[in-house]
């Protein structure tokens, strides 16, 4: 087993443990909604980017599934949804629009920075036509739609 697979295993364990440590017990339902809704966004977007040949994930945690779905299970179905949960559950509702922009850029920037490092130093991610700023933009858009859905969900939950 190569170092990249060990990295994916360790990263997956962190993603399994993180919600138990970071999600308050009264917000578990919200975390599930955030997790699943972001997957609705990332699955088709990730498939589109991979099928267009813009980005590739040469090393997979589950390589036998790679012939059916060439996106990164670890990144798009695990890490990014966990990031989105933390983003929305700890979203500072009382800040002005400049603070909101900073909040979005901190989360999206961190995620983008980590992907760029992985692309440069590992075989987990390979950019072809893809650029780092596309990751930044798509992460911001995904977080925005996911958070808006969460706010709508919470509003509907209160009315019931």
From TrEMBL:
The keyword Transmembrane applies. InterPro entries: CBO0543-like. It comes from Bacillus seohaeanensis. This is CBO0543 family protein. The keyword Transmembrane applies. The chain crosses the membrane at residues 6-24, 31-55, 75-92, 101-118, 130-151. Keywords: Membrane, Transmembrane, Transmembrane helix.
């Amino acid at each position: 087993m190569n170092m990249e697979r060990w990295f994916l295993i360790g990263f997956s364990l962190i993603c399994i443990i993180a919600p138990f440590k970071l999600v308050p017990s009264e917000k578990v339902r919200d975390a599930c909604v955030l997790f699943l809704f972001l997957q609705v966004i990332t699955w088709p977007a990730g498939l589109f980017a991979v099928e267009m040949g813009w980005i590739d994930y040469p090393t997979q945690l589950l390589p036998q599934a790679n012939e059916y779905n060439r996106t990164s299970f670890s990144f798009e179905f695990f890490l990014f949804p966990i990031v989105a949960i933390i983003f929305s559950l700890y979203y500072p509702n009382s800040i002005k629009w400049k603070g909101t922009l900073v909040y979005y850029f901190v989360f999206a920037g961190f995620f983008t920075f980590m992907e760029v490092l992985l692309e440069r130093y590992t075989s987990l991610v390979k950019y072809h036509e893809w650029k780092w700023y596309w990751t930044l933009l798509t992460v911001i858009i995904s977080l925005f739609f996911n958070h808006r859905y969460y706010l709508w969900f919470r509003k509907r939950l209160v009315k019931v």
